[in-house]
Amino acid sequence: MNAVCPPRRQLGLSLIELILFIVVISAALAGVLRVFLQAGSSSADPQIQRQALAIAESLMEEVQLMPYSFCDGDDANLESADDASGCASQAEAMGPEAGENRYSTPQFDNVNDYHGFAMTGGIRDIGNTLIPGLAGYSATVQVVAAGLGSISQASGDALMITVSVSGPNGSQVQLSGWRTRYAPKAGI
Asked: Which residue, 84, 53, 59, 56, is CA-closest to 70?
């Protein structure tokens, strides 16, 4: 007895199915690779931003640690003046006094000496040496009289310090801080 066997169903993929599978997988891989390439090409951006922030924080700290008194740092009455009229030579004014700079003697000796200060062509240390790896950055400092709480802007007893740093890819970081005047004699 010869029984008729039903035709077997074929297992596997046809050539058309295989080609279609390859096309779909290729399109998916291309999309995934594009995302990886974009992420890889911009992965340095956070490093540049962090470096710019570190520069801004460092410069802000340098400025805020300077004295802010009524008289210039070289004035004989610096420690005893209760107001600008008590200065022996001159009251402190916005911006550096003649000849003062950040890098050599006479150096900045007051917070407001930094008003208008700029570093272009790279970030330099206090000795005016270019810091390796920071040639693509620049920084500026602005210092202006400002109101702060109960201190009026007109009194000039509070300053707002703004440090701006530009990175090599055009990124910008800007920090603002405050400094108040003290009268050394008032604490005696």
From this structure: 84
